[in-house]
Design a protein that fits this description.
2 helices, alpha+beta
Length: about 70
């Protein structure tokens, strides 16, 4: 999965796999999480958000199934 670096205090990079609708988030501490069944527009909004961490907390955490990689 291709990852894109983002400007964030906690998040290093985000990536998205269209075929499986999987969002992947790499944190600066090295942790990696995958969120499942995420629409592409949610990924795009996350990637482009002024506050990536804030968008993650408001729109993704608690909404989509996830797994630590």
């Amino acid at each position: 999965m291709q990852m894109t670096n983002v400007e964030s205090s906690n998040i290093q990079a985000v990536g998205y796999d269209e075929s499986s609708s999987t969002l992947q988030i790499e944190f600066k501490n090295g942790a990696m999480y995958q969120y499942f069944d995420v629409p592409e527009n949610v990924f795009t909004a996350l990637r482009d958000a002024d506050s990536v961490g804030g968008y993650l907390a408001r729109n993704i955490k608690g909404t989509y199934r996830y797994s630590k990689v």
